[in-house]
Amino acid sequence: MSLDGRYDPDNVFAKVIRGEAPAAKVYEDHDSLAFMDLFPQSRGHVLVVSKGSQARNLLEIEPERLQHLVLSVQRVARAVRAALKPDGVAVMQFNGAAAGQTVFHLHFHVIPRYADQPLGGHGHGRMADPAELQALARAIAAEIT
Amino acid sequence: MSLDGRYDPDNVFAKVIRGEAPAAKVYEDHDSLAFMDLFPQSRGHVLVVSKGSQARNLLEIEPERLQHLVLSVQRVARAVRAALKPDGVAVMQFNGAAAGQTVFHLHFHVIPRYADQPLGGHGHGRMADPAELQALARAIAAEIT
């Protein structure tokens, strides 16, 4: 198998889901959670995860759960656009370390793109200011429909 | 609105869907089509599009159609992995020119990643050999489940 080891129930996203690690939450429902990336590649970078699944990646997740999750990705992408008015929005989802995955709990990146700004490197960004992330999370959450 | 202009019914993916432009097809059902990217960022780069929607991007597509499309993305990602044994698989979806979108018909990229190979630039690759794409398409199609 590989795509890099077994599911670790103590990965950081699992801790966020259980409330054991802090996060600036944008959206939550019965099976999905969206929160600000602590190492944003651009201003307003949000992560969207499944709450109930222990899938490491897109290949493993139960199809019904994936169908629910992708609606949350769409909802968040629309809200990011409404709140922050970026010029574009990139959605990325990495499977396996060779693809750039660093946390092995399935997640979608919703990354606002601004015409004049190159994208920060994935996993190489600087940690964001928590207060600023909370403010961004509130602004995006206000646009969720 | 922007995210770059109105839907153009003569965009190249619409032509592929109508059979007016050639493509090395990997998978097709009533509302989705997967085919090899002519300018692959890595060996086995597949595009997955909705057939019935005129959505330019993820923000616009009808939720039910998106739910169907994402299952086709999963199906193709699994088949790419089974056929080509890459070390990872990246799924990318760009909304707006500022995010890297070049064809304004919603599409998902399924991009195999190989540990020793950097990713070719999106939209800057060399055109692939059509016979090689057909062979890759057949190999991936044989693993669709």
Features:
homodimer; 145 residues; alpha+beta; HIT family, subunit A; 5-stranded antiparallel β-sheet; 28% helix; 20% strand; globular
Short description:
The structure is a homodimer of 145-residue chains. With 145 residues, chain A is an alpha+beta fold.
Could you describe the largest sheet of chain A, including whether it forms a barrel?
5 strands, antiparallel
What is the total tally of β strands of chain A? Answer: 5
Q: Helicity of chain A, in percent?
A: 25-40%
CATH topology of chain A: HIT family, subunit A
Which radius of gyration of chain A do the C-alpha atoms yield?
A: 14 Å
Query: What's the total helix number of chain A?
Result: 3
Largest interface: A-B, 36 and 36 residues
Give the name of the CATH superfamily of chain A. HIT-like
Instruction: Summarize model confidence as the mean pLDDT of chain A.
Output: 94
CATH C-level category of chain A: Alpha Beta
> What is the terminal separation of chain A in angstroms?
39 Å
Strand order of the largest sheet of chain A: 1-2-3-5-4
Which percent band covers the strand fraction of chain A? 15-25%
Q: How many separate domains of chain A?
A: 1
Poorly predicted ranges of chain A: none
* Shape type of chain A: globular
